[in-house]
Amino acid sequence: MRLVIIGAGFAGMYAALSAARLRDIRGASPEEFEIALVSPEPTLVVRPRLYEPNPETLTAPLLDVLDSIDVAYIQGSVEAVDTQSRMVQIATGKGANKSLAYDRLVMATGSRLFRPDIPGLAKHGFSVDSLDDAIALDKHLHGLAKRPATNGRNTIVVVGGGFTGIEAATEMPGRLRKILGEDAKTRIVIVDRNDVIAPDMGADARPVIDEALRKLGVETRLGVGVTSLDESGITLSSGEHIETATVIWAAGMRAAPLTAQIPAERDNFGRLLVDRDLRVPGVPGVFATGDAARAACDDEGNYALMSCQHATRMGAFAGNNAAAELLGVSTKPYHQKAYVTCLDLGEAGALFTRGWERTVEMVGEVAKKTKQEINTIWIYPPKAERAAALASADPERVTDL
């Protein structure tokens, strides 16, 4: 029997770890129960950190970890999923393709930045959505030092006032000064359609964010959209044109396109609706997890967000449950009552909240130290030591904050 996991992000990595853990507990051998993970590269891209400098360093190797737990790695991109015949078609490079049968499938395909059809966005916009995007932005920022010192050169516009947009914008003042010189006058502007920055953060946390933006001199343009981009800058729906050489798009996410091949119901973000065991109803043998799934966290109406915090735990439950069905043991309903946010605010520190009410627990440098620990330790893969790696994937304990 074979379990196939598509994706090597946080959800896919923990699905593989958790499935291997249960296989080990039940005493099944890798020969009788194969676990295969398919992805273009055997690396975890540390996506939550891509707003930082030196993005080329923000990956972690997975091959040794997968080898240590007897998970087969298959290099390639899944181009087609046939849920009737339980087959996936994998493009392995240089025009070669491979068919792989599965008994259970875990869709851990992640998400992509939503890029609307706005004139000039594809040509002139940057992002921190993928490793390649972040590297392209970093290269562009360093290239600014070779340009004449104009207002447009020293201005960065970030479109999107959510977590990604705030972290990208608050990182930019210090990042630009290191490139252009400590005396360079820089201008950072956040544009968002909402009437407030970070509308989901609530009344307790939002003043901390507003104060950080004021401290850093980050401007906002709220309640407006984007009409177009060109070489001279960005034009807003209000008619304002902001001269800039750098527009960073951080407005909205959608589930990866492969989820559309699963004949099931999806939400407005393209995520597959799943039951409490993370199965896709009506599609036998298929589970979805991480950013590919809309999953209830509890019985109070809270649903998992597109975040690594939810993806790691969801991945552990999906891997465990897919393996449990094949091994003939009970599944574990996914639940994630604990929820925290830790928002980087650049040189203004950070913000740490707990609960869906976003109760503020830490701010400033204290929160910054926690954010750095999360970014550099907590979200990285376990060491390639079998017992420790398997122990890290207990679904009941993953990201239990």
From TrEMBL:
The keyword Lyase does not apply. Signal peptide: none annotated. Keywords: FAD, Flavoprotein, NAD, Oxidoreductase. This is Pyridine nucleotide-disulfide oxidoreductase. Residues 2-315 form the FAD/NAD(P)-binding domain. Belongs to the NADH dehydrogenase family. One of its GO terms (molecular function) is NADH dehydrogenase activity. The lineage of its organism: Bacteria, Pseudomonadati, Pseudomonadota, Betaproteobacteria, Burkholderiales. It comes from the Bacteria.
